[in-house]
């Protein structure tokens, strides 16, 4: 009998220790959740956030034409050697055709080490102006690009309206509200 009492006491002590450790872990998880919730991201996940204008830039297109600034552009796409990049070309081409963007209003930036655009971008040659730049080039820096592929929809002044990693999820700019008609956020 004394052996059974000792075993029950030992098991009871282990359960009590486990319970105390569980409460300690729960308390730490709550602290970490509060810490994570109070942190604000330093920058937008893809690059420039909506409402921001890119820094001035200039580059030479594959056709030899000078591309300077975002004011005349409506859509900018960044591609690299990433494995998902080729999959995004067809949806981008469909988006450009659907919205009837002019080739002069669409800029496709091929980021990489070569002087030629990525081969999978050939489908976009008639739909857009194509530039090639090394990683950390002037256009990618102006848009603060953080990943590939990425797409920026711009208004007539070259200010970012929307951005994303999938062109099929970009909005139709004709269905977006006019920013001049929106209420002032300070008065709402």
- Into how many domains do the coordinates divide? 2
Corresponding CATH superfamily of the largest domain: Glutaredoxin
Highest CATH level, the class of the largest domain: Alpha Beta
DSSP strand content: 15-25%
The CATH architecture of the largest domain: 3-Layer(aba) Sandwich
Low-confidence stretches: 179-188
Integer average pLDDT: 84
**What are the secondary-structure elements, in order, as H or E?**
HEEEHEEHEE
Secondary structure tally, helices: 3
Tally of extended strands? 7
Indicate the percent of residues in helices. Answer: 25-40%
Euclidean distance between termini CA atoms:
75 Å
Question: How is the main sheet built?
Answer: 5 strands, mixed
| Structural Rg | 26 Å
By helix and strand content, what is the structural category? Answer: alpha/beta
Characterization of the model:
The strands form 2 sheets. The protein has a 5-stranded mixed sheet with strand order 5-4-3-6-7. Strands 1-2 form a two-stranded antiparallel sheet. With 188 residues, the protein is α/β, with parallel strands linked by helices. It has 2 domains: 1-39; 58-179, Glutaredoxin (3-Layer(aba) Sandwich). It is elongated, with a radius of gyration of 26 Å. The termini are far apart. The chain has helices spanning 2-38, 89-99, 138-142; strands spanning 58-60, 66-68, 75-79, 106-111, 129-133, 150-154, 160-164. It contains 3 helices and 7 strands.
